[in-house]
Write a structure and sequence with these properties.
With 72 residues, the protein is an alpha+beta fold. It has one domain. It is built from 1 helix and 6 strands. A two-stranded antiparallel sheet has the order 1-2. The protein has a two-stranded antiparallel sheet with strand order 3-4. A hairpin with a 6-residue loop joins β3 and β4. The mean pLDDT is 90.
Length: 72
């Protein structure tokens, strides 16, 4: 009998350098660019300054460009 004891719903995280802290437990966060749910266990890309999560490196790069954090 397999049971999944992970909390359901959207998590709230504090994004730190190289790690994140769970403020409110949940099973996913939303990509700040696309709105796509990102399972917590798959979360690899985020921005500490903006406190945002991204589904892929492409979304992270897009947001960095929008924020003026990349060379023109």
């Amino acid at each position: 009998m397999d049971r999944d004891f992970r909390p359901e719903g959207q998590a709230v995280l504090e994004y730190l350098d190289g790690e994140f802290r769970v403020v409110k437990a949940g099973s996913f966060v939303l990509c700040a660019v696309t709105g796509v749910p990102i399972p917590i266990e798959s979360l690899r890309y985020w921005n500490v300054d903006l406190q945002e999560a991204y589904a892929t490196p492409a979304e992270a790069l897009q947001r960095h460009k929008e924020a003026g954090k990349t060379p023109q």
